[in-house]
Specification:
Layout: H1 2-11, H2 23-28, H3 34-38, E1 55-59, H4 60-63, H5 71-75, E2 81-82, E3 94-95, E4 103-107, E5 110-111, E6 131-137, E7 151-157, E8 165-175, E9 180-192, E10 195-217, H6 227-230, E11 232-256, E12 262-283, E13 299-324, E14 327-350, E15 356-381, E16 386-412, E17 435-457, E18 462-479, E19 484-502, E20 507-518, H7 522-525, E21 529-534, E22 537-540, E23 548-561, E24 565-577, E25 580-589, E26 592-602, E27 606-619, E28 624-642, E29 645-647, E30 655-665, E31 670-679, E32 682-686, E33 689-695, E34 698-706, E35 710-717, E36 723-730, H8 734-739, E37 744-751, E38 755-763
Parallel strand pairs: 4-7, 22-26
Antiparallel strand pairs: 1-6, 2-3, 4-5, 6-7, 8-9, 8-38, 9-10, 10-11, 10-37, 11-12, 12-13, 13-14, 14-15, 15-16, 16-17, 17-18, 18-19, 19-20, 20-23, 21-22, 23-24, 24-27, 25-26, 27-28, 28-29, 28-30, 30-31, 31-34, 32-33, 33-36, 34-35, 35-38, 36-37
Length: about 775
């Protein structure tokens, strides 16, 4: 791993920074001086994007005063993005409340591999300090990958034109348990050899202390109103602490030739080292602890779990733009890689009687995901307002996964156990050999070849775009444990159309119609039989799965308020076909009668719809010229059929909203502001388990003081001690789930305290 990191450091020139507007605009745009990124004179608002595909655009100055640590923290403030992460974390972005698998995350317009078996990319992998702007692309165009049923999040990183000069950032975060984590970084941009060079580095300490409490019962209130008194099983308390560091490097170089040709090479390298330490105690009484024999309180189990995680992301990319035949051709080559190594040890001590039973498990997992990409695109004007584009895209992807586990039991005759002074890990022997889990050692290879064509007309009053994309995929899956290889090929024709009409001096209507995809999860297409994967039922992979597809409509109205304000409303609808849902093969499962072998299949349809509102404006018209407000609200809904009837798409929140303000005191060189965020409840229904999730509200405040080249900022986050409440309905078999015969009913609560951040920025 160390040698790989050194190579990545030397090679960290990745991720193309050419925006969707083309090379010439990037080459000719003004260069920002370092003071503009450190000492703010104006409040940043949502941009009014000129892209024909419906797009919301937020520059860095919209987020930075609240000092987000990651891209995920920044995205919490934009419309329609929800998370089902643990408290204090923002990893899998869920546009319009749908699973992260339905959201395409791009870095500078390019796909990057991630850890998720559902092909998702965790946005907490990108430090917020690297971001130039964020684009929320609600509907795809032909010149962009259509794997985005919910939409696309394009995280655009800084390039050589983002900065002239440099700045340093130093500070830290203090957590409610007294832990302090450092935050250091620096960026420098300059002219070099007639081009523009940008270099950046960032070190971010990460820490997340949480406490969880669970109450478990043998029945639920839907069957027994007195379930708390009559069917109590056990109570569990858990301390869960995540501790680690993120290190990142980024670089870019851009050069414009005399004939208008343009070249760039740029990149990012991110490394994470993290530990997750969990300790839980299970009691047989709803309130008393171990030793309270008069009230029947005793310790049932003592569980210790520790995981060490190492992750590395890097991408390398270069592009060349050449004026040709009166138009412009762009050629691009890129390579991206994600590596993850996880080593986990878990020991559970059954203390109910002597001899005590020690169950010990170890798991080692590795992911190596590589992508190679070639692209070509040619744009050709054929009148003052019209142009056509054609292009081709080739990508090879190879994902190697290895999961190995060992399990064993032993007995100990210790007459007493001090749960607070001792750890079950100290008793473990871990003498069982590692064995590959079923389907856990596999290789997925995919080759994509896409071509597209589009026509575009742009004018102030009326603009339109018509395009079509053909995506063809050849896949091969090797299950190395069972020595099984399977192949699957599929292709899709994906049309798109976008219209923008200026209906008033400050108002315009946007409408879009497009077809989009969601590709199947990696673990679903692996041809392996995993016993008791879904409660007591077995899960059989299905390499023949094809992507889900959807026809989508977006209809929006946007109104400009003064010079910088904007207000928008958008209606969206998605008609999803070939949903990947769990089906019953009819074969009996490994646990015998009443259990089945289940398999993911393309079956059924679903719909997704909602309304999105956003407002970003100064309050000068109300006599508050130095105050800006930010409001967005999204109402989200959907329908899908499964084994048990109609439901929403799994884990889709009912709504999400954000509101906030920033007030500036120009004469004092000071500002303060606040944001408040709340998302609605979410329900997930799976075979063997149903989960409802409720989040508390999140409040953040900042105050800053500015000098000529210096900014000191204090930020308080999670000021309401945000909590995550989950209710689990658990069943052993399909029949029991249909008949509501519970195996277990669980109430779980997770909570973390406030975090205070102090940050100093200096421009030079």
């Amino acid at each position: 791993m160390t040698s790989f990191k050194l190579k990545a450091l030397v090679a960290a020139l990745a991720l193309n920074n050419i925006s969707a507007y083309g090379a010439q605009e990037n080459a000719n745009k003004p260069v920002k001086v370092s003071e503009e990124l450190v000492v703010y004179g104006d409040i940043g608002y949502r941009n009014r994007s000129q892209q024909l595909a419906p797009t919301l655009e937020y520059d860095q100055d919209y987020f930075q005063r609240f000092e987000p640590l990651t891209a995920g923290d920044a995205l919490k403030r934009v419309p329609s993005v929800t998370f089902l992460s643990d408290v204090l974390e923002s990893d899998g972005a869920r546009m319009r409340g749908l699973s992260p698998a339905y959201t395409k995350v791009l870095i500078n317009g390019e796909e990057v591999p991630g850890a998720g078996a559902d092909r998702s990319f965790f946005v907490d992998r990108i430090p917020a300090e690297l971001i130039e702007r964020v684009e929320i692309i609600r509907s795809p165009s032909a010149n962009r990958s259509a794997d985005a049923i919910a939409g696309t999040l394009n995280i655009v990183l800084r390039d050589g034109y983002s900065l002239d000069g440099g700045y340093l950032r130093a500070g830290g975060l203090r957590y409610d348990d007294g832990e302090f984590k450092e935050s250091l970084g620096g960026v420098y941009g300059t002219e070099l050899g007639g081009g523009r060079l940008l270099l950046g580095a960032n070190l971010q300490g990460r820490y997340n202390p949480k406490k969880k409490t669970s109450f478990r019962y043998g029945d639920s209130p839907e069957n027994n109103p007195d379930y708390r008194e009559q069917t109590f099983d056990n109570r569990e308390h858990q301390d869960d602490t995540r501790d680690g560091d993120d290190t990142s490097l980024n670089a870019s170089y851009e050069y414009t030739f005399n004939d208008g040709a343009y070249f760039d090479i740029s990149g990012i390298w991110v490394d994470t080292e993290r530990s997750e330490d969990e300790r839980s105690y299970e009691y047989n009484h709803p309130s008393t602890a171990s030793g309270d024999a008069a009230n029947g309180g005793s310790l049932l189990t003592d569980n210790a779990n520790i995981a060490d995680i190492e992750q590395t992301n890097y991408s390398l990319s270069s592009s060349y733009n050449q004026p040709l035949f009166g138009g412009n051709s762009k050629f691009k080559v890129a390579v991206a890689r994600f590596e993850e190594s996880v080593f986990e040890q878990e020991v559970e001590l059954d203390t109910a009687e002597l001899p005590m039973v020690l169950e010990q498990e170890q798991e080692r997992s590795d992911i190596d995901d590589k992508e190679w990409t070639l692209q070509w695109q040619h744009s050709q004007p054929y009148s003052d307002s019209k142009q056509w584009q054609i292009g081709a895209f080739w990508q090879k992807k190879e994902r190697d996964t290895g999961i190995y586990a060992s399990e064993s039991e032993l007995e100990t005759m210790q007459s007493s156990w001090d749960q607070f002074a001792q750890s079950p890990l100290s008793l473990a022997t871990f003498d069982a050999p590692f064995e590959a889990v079923s389907g856990g050692v596999n290789t997925v290879q995919e080759q994509r070849f896409d071509v597209f064509a589009l026509l575009k007309h742009e004018s102030q009053e009326f603009a339109w775009e018509l395009g079509v994309r053909w995506e063809s995929t050849d896949s091969q899956v090797d299950n190395h444990v069972d020595a099984v290889r399977t192949d699957n090929d599929y292709d899709f024709i994906l049309p798109s159309a976008h219209i923008r009409v200026q209906v008033a001096e400050n108002g315009r209507i946007n409408a879009s119609l497009a077809r989009s995809l969601r590709r199947p999860d990696f673990d679903y297409i692996t041809p392996a039989l995993r016993e008791e994967e879904l409660a007591d039922n077995d899960l059989l992979g299905n390499p023949a799965l094809e992507p889900e597809s959807a026809w989508g409509v977006d209809l929006g109205y946007e109104y400009r308020l003064g010079q910088t304000g904007v207000m928008g409303v958008n209606l969206f609808y998605r008609d999803v076909s070939d949903l990947i849902e769990i089906a019953n093969t009819g074969m009996q499962g490994a646990e015998g009668e009443g259990t089945f072998v289940l398999q993911p299949r393309n079956t059924g349809d679903g719909t997704v719809y909602g309304v999105e509102l956003d407002l970003s404006t100064p309050l000068g018209a109300l006599g508050l010229p130095n105050t800006g407000v930010f409001v967005n609200y999204s109402w989200l809904d959907s329908e899908v059929e499964d084994f048990f009837g109609e439901r929403k798409f799994n884990d889709q929140s009912d709504y999400v909203y954000n509101l906030g303000f920033i007030h500036d005191f120009p004469q004092l060189g000071a500002s303060f502001g606040a944001t408040y965020r709340k998302q609605g409840d979410a329900l997930g229904r799976f075979v063997g388990e149903e989960v409802s999730t409720h989040y508390g509200a999140d409040l953040e405040l900042f105050i800053e003081k500015r000098w000529q080249k210096l900014t000191l900022r204090m930020v308080g986050s999670n000021l309401l001690d945000a909590s995550k409440e989950e209710v689990f309905n658990k069943f052993d078999t399909l029949e029991q789930q249909i008949e509501r015969d519970f195996d277990e009913y669980e109430l779980e609560s997770e909570q973390a305290g406030p975090v205070v951040q102090l940050m100093l920025r200096y421009a030079f």
